[in-house]
Amino acid sequence: MANRQLQEPTRLVLTALADAPRHGYAIVQEVLAISGGRTKLLTGTLYTALDRLLQQGLIRIDHEEVVGGRLRRTFALTEEGGEVLAAETERLRAGVAEAERRLALGGLLPKLRPGLQRGLEEGVERTLGAVLGRGGVTA
User: Fold this and answer.
1) Which of 6, 13, 33, 89 is most buried (CB neighbours < 10 A)?
2) What is the CA radius of gyration of the chain?
3) Distance in angstroms (rounded) separating the CA atoms of residues 41 and 39
4) Main-chain dihedrals φ then ψ at residue 56, nearest 5 degrees
5) DSSP states of 35-49 as a string?
6) Strand (E) or helix (H) holding 127
7) Sheet of 70-77, strand order
């Protein structure tokens, strides 16, 4: 896959799958948790993204089962998907570091609201934990 910026929903889906395989509803719930309630994926959006990620080789079908008469697919991150997510995480980290550097140079960094700073740090830690397999949010 080309080395380009991931769209936020794609990054969130890959992050949701970084620590464990999940079925569609669990991915939606995980994305909601990871995003702090800011991103709620609609079913059509989710399955369009999952189909695209399958075609790109970034995720795979871990297993399928019939639940309540309906087929439930569980998706997992592939090695390539993990590499793409790790590269995106590094790209984001570099961007945040540069923004913080410039805010500090401008004397604005200490003026960040404590809650905003804490939220940024928690979000980075949650994403890193998921990418590096050290936990993260679970469904």
Assistant:
1) 13
2) 17
3) 6
4) -80, -10
5) TTTS----HHHHHHH
6) helix 114-131
7) 22-23, 70-77, 59-67
Position 68 confidence tier, pLDDT thresholds 50, 70, 90: very high
Cα–Cα dist 36/49, whole Å? 20
pTM for this prediction: 0.76
Cβ–Cβ under 8 Å, residues 3 and 87: yes
CA distance 24 to 47: 8
DSSP 8-state secondary structure symbol assigned to residue 134: S
At residue 119, φ and ψ (nearest 5 deg) are -65, -40
**Residue 124 contacts residue 93 (beta carbons within 8 Å):** yes
Inter-helix orientation angle 43-56/24-34, to 10°: 100
Q: Which two tokens stand for residue 122?
A: 């928690």
Please give the Cα distance from 37 to 48 (Å, whole number): 21
Q: Give residue-wise pLDDT tens across range 13-28.
A: 999 999 999 999 999 9
Q: Please list the residues that pair with 77 across neighbouring strands.
A: 59
Q: For strand 59-67 and strand 22-23, is the pairing parallel, antiparallel, or unpaired? A: unpaired
